[in-house]
Amino acid sequence: MTNFPEVGILPVIMAGGTGSRLWPLSREQHPKQFLKLHGDTTMLQETVSRLATLDTLDPVIICNDDHRFLVAEQLREIGKLANNIILEPEARNTAPAIALAAFTALKKKPDNDPLLLVLAADHVIQHETSFVRAVNSAVTLAEAGNLVTFGIVPTHAETGYGYILRGEKVSESAFKVAQFAEKPDAKNAQHYLESGNYYWNSGMFLFRATQFLAELKKYRPDIYTACEHSASRLTEDLDFVRINKDDFIQCPAESIDYAVMEHTQHAVVVPMEAGWSDVGSWSSLWEISEKDAGGNVLKGDVIQRDCLNTYVHSEDILVAAIGLKNTVIVQTPDALLIADKNCVQNVKNVVEVLKSHERKEYKKHKITYRPWGSIDTLARGKDYIVNRLTIHPKKKISTQIHQHRTEHWIVVSGTALVKQEEKEFLIHENESMFIPVGTAHALSNPGVLPLEIIEIQSGNLLSEDDILRVSEFNSGK
């Protein structure tokens, strides 16, 4: 069963969103929260690991159904997969997502009322000690019935964030919220900075589950009712908690700020100076990254000469940059972005063009993830596809039949257990197996190391439409 807390703080990590401003690394099916943008682990993994020195239980992750296997795999890698992923059938913004977490926690543990520490999976916090200190200082406030938001002490006049105006002081570390302000123009942003009374709106919160739901019911009963009904019929599927889709799609989409925080009389703000960034663009990523003497950030196989304040990211080729200033270059196996650093907010417009032309580059990378591993598409032609399959130890691909294509498997690392009709075969490194049209087959990794296979599909229908699953195996190909 899902691990919800007996008492204490329950981290709720929201892992939705598409991060279109960080294209081409961020794609609809693999957005920025699942990328390694600022360290050796992904942003989601960093967010979970940041909780290590706080007195919390295993976090609950809320994500889109399409991203469930990515989330599960990344939690598994850091030992935090504990049947703790709530799936949204459709995105409905932050207020419904948090309501789902609150209802689900109370449903699982009716006699307890945890503090929900609401975090985004795609934020960078460079000073984790300051983050922990701010959260700990907010616990007493939240236990007293306040809805605590964390305001980032601004370091410059930023026009890309919303702001929070502080009111009267309520403790040594907190103030009443006087007003939420929309993203300002440059003049107002400068005024906010100079006044010393405004904070950046971080989108992080701490409050009792029941207190949040009471305020939501008071100000947005339509969202409350839809989420209550959705969470009343939970089902568990592998590592996932599924809520009722028919009820949830009736729920209005709304942010927690608009739904609750701008109306409640119990909102307080705790200032935080923790090197925070929402990494909303390539320029913001450049700002928080380690730079060379010329202000350049270089990732991957990159050579630069006479460049200044430039960001270069290469996935798999050599990139040489000469004489560039304030430029962003991002290379992936299927796309290349070159932009003036002052214009990177317009990357989202490129994504919209790709989407309107139904180009796959806006949606997914060459590598796609499955519960059993991953598929890396190496080559594609009119009647063939060449994939590299990676199958995790003790995992399998469901038994299936193809009516329009053959498959040829070559084991390059590990040992494969292949079932063809009623026969089973062990296929070792440098050995191969041919799967004719119309043959029931299954593939699994019986070993303790990852299995690597080159798969060649050949035929006149190479899509998911030509997969007939024979067995009931939820994690199928």
Describe what you observe in this structure:
- The chain has 477 residues and is α+β, with helices and mostly antiparallel strands.
- Helices cover 22% and strands 34% of the residues.
- The chain contains eleven helices and 30 strands.
- The strands form six sheets. It has a six-stranded antiparallel beta sheet. It has a five-stranded mixed barrel with strand order 6-9-7-8-12. A five-stranded antiparallel beta sheet has the order 26-25-28-23-30, with no helix packed on it.
- A hairpin with a 3-residue loop joins strand 21 and strand 22 (384-391).
- Helix 3 (94-108) crosses helix 6 (209-219) and helix 3 crosses helix 7.
- The protein is globular, with a radius of gyration of 24 Å.
